[in-house]
Amino acid sequence: MITAAPLIRIDSWYNPYHNRTEMNLFHDPSRETRTAVNRTLCIRVRTLLGLITSLVLMSGLTHADDVMRIFLFAGQSNMVGSDAQTERIDEFPPFRGAGAPQEDVLYSYVLENGTQASTGWVPLRPLNSFGPELTFARRVKQQISSPIGIIKSAVGGTTVAFDWNPDAPEKGQKLYPRTLKLIRESLDLLKQRGIAYQLEGVMWHQGENDMLDRNLMNQYAEGLKKLIARLRVDLQAPELKWYLAEVSEKGIWGMDHRANLGVLYDQQQIVLKSDSRLRWVPTSHLAFEVMGSGQPHYHFGTQGQLQLGEAFANAYLQEVDRLPPAADRRFPENLPVAAKQRVRLFVLAGQRNMEGEDSYVDEIPSTAGFESLSHPQEQVLYRHSLGGGVAVSTDWEPLEPNEFLGNFGPELSFGARLRKSLNPEEGIAIVKFTHSGAQSPDWSPRGSLQSHRNLYQRFVNFVLAAQQDLSRRGYDCQLEGVFWHTGENDTYFGPYLQNYAQSMKQLIDQSRIDLKRAELTWFITEQHKQAPWGHSTEINASLLELTKSDPQVKLIKTAHLPHAKRHFGTKGTLMLGEEMADAYLKQR
Fold first, then answer.
1. Do 85 and 166 reside in the same domain of the chain?
2. What is the CATH number of the domain that holds 358?
3. Cβ atoms of residues 496 and 448 within 8 Å
């Protein structure tokens, strides 16, 4: 931890309407001397920081125990905020208003080749793009009253091997000395103003360019360890924590560079295991931009950056024991099903649309016909594992929207339609296992070389555990079917697209063996014709052929449902759930 010299008392009063700041830096009996000092200081402040740096005077640092928490943000293009568009922030209900200036957060930055750089400290606000710093600060402020400062240095397309190498070899952009200079100068400005601070951590997102070079990727762990160690020494902060963000496997690099990305993941895990002061920040479940062609992007984009900031913040808040506990949604005592009754168990599984990307809980109350689904459905049992295990329920809960990214999937309307139509004496239980960033190799029963991505066994075990729990409680549990939405992350990428039906057959066949239901029905919803991924005609045709060879595979039409720009969206997802329920009810 770095802490500045003892805080000089600053009594400040700021009136933005009269543009006047009065400061009492010293107990000087001479009003003229005090006034002269004030004028000189104001001139220097304006010259150094610009008019908006009155923020420093507004920060409320009037006592020695008001210590500013300083966070360092560094990395490459996804830390810069490439393809995150400020004007789109309010399109995403959980983040409306997140683009507003945060006048109470200090921000010092140098981005790209230096064309974007602050002159000292300025209030935090988005530039023409933005990175995770916006929602990070907003989220941290909700739980911590201490003042916050963010220092950010990031350049796209850079490597640990060269650009971030503290030894600054000839090849590369020499970002380490540039970043160290930015940090030291920014901290010196705080010292000059008598502001006490402490370094809280480094938020790091980088690795894509090391991954792309087979000559570099196996050196990544040693290079990153050297960078971490050197920065701690140069900042005299031996306990400085680093928060390492996963390079998302949801983007195109998770497909066409799957093996390389797997090596990078392993390299990052080596670094994590070598240092107890490092923390891992999963990201593959977060939103990831999609190009107009339907290709998954190289960058998080607008929504993903907003979510990434909160992911960093939650990791930090958990570290300092300030993360609010998740709501306990478990049934308080007994399940709402009569003893020894039948419980029909339904499984929902898949990727983006099944998890609920771009379907917003906040919009349910204004969606005609579905308003009540924002409330708990006390007569429907629910368990979930979302984002590949990022959010997992610990017991049976009433079916209701959860807090996961502010999204929901088709389970809400699916459960409501079934409960309305089935025998009220029988129980209904829904198990949802999804990972919006997964692809067909991740679901393969055989597994893949990138073993940390394998989902199949976790999926089967999760379903079996739910069955066994209901049986242990004395219920007659019957598995009714698996409901699957055609994989968005497979549809665009050629090798996955061409083998999708075959991959699904392997998944279906093995699940029937492992779940001990030889006639287990799989209900697969079509890829919507308006989905941006393309190839919906081809992939739906291949699934139709699968239904002809396997009568227990049912294909559910979706072309008549509303569809948003990338995914079904709120209304489309609610209607999708009803279509799934109706498909089951028709074949009973």
1. yes
2. 3.40.50.1110
3. no
Q: Roughly what angle, to the nearest 10 degrees, separates helices 175-192 and 220-234? A: 30
Is residue 129 included in any domain, yes or no? yes
| DSSP conformational letter for 336 | S
How many other C-beta atoms are found inside a 10 Å radius of the C-beta of residue 394? 10
Direct distance between the N- and C-terminal alpha carbons of the chain, in angstroms, rounded to an integer: 64
Domain of residue 578 covers 342-587
Does 246 share its domain with 360? no
Q: Are residues 368 and 493 in the same domain?
A: yes
**C-alpha to C-alpha distance for 343 and 478, rounded to whole angstroms:** 6
Q: Indicate the residue among 284, 319, 354 that finishes a domain.
A: 319
Per-residue pLDDT of the chain (588 residues; tens, 9 = 90+): 444 433 322 222 222 222 323 222 222 333 333 334 344 444 343 333 333 333 333 333 333 348 999 999 999 999 999 999 999 999 999 999 999 999 999 999 999 988 899 999 999 999 989 999 999 999 999 999 999 999 999 999 999 999 999 997 778 899 999 999 999 999 999 999 999 999 999 999 999 999 999 999 999 999 999 999 999 999 999 999 999 999 999 999 999 999 999 999 999 999 999 999 999 999 999 999 999 888 889 999 999 999 999 999 999 999 999 999 989 999 988 999 999 999 999 999 999 999 999 999 999 999 999 999 999 999 999 999 999 999 999 899 999 998 899 999 999 999 999 999 999 999 999 999 999 999 999 999 999 999 999 999 999 999 999 999 999 999 999 999 999 999 898 988 989 999 999 999 999 999 999 999 999 999 999 999 999 988 999 999 999 999 999 999 999 999 999 999 999 999 999 999 999 999 999 998
Number of domains present in the structure of the chain: 2
User: Does residue 327 fall inside a structural domain?
Assistant: no
Q: Please count the other Cβ atoms lying within 10 Å of the Cβ belonging to residue 471.
A: 12
Q: Is 366 found in the same domain as 249?
A: no
Identify whether residues 205 and 126 lie together within a single domain.
Answer: yes
Number of CB atoms found within 10 A of residue 576's CB: 27
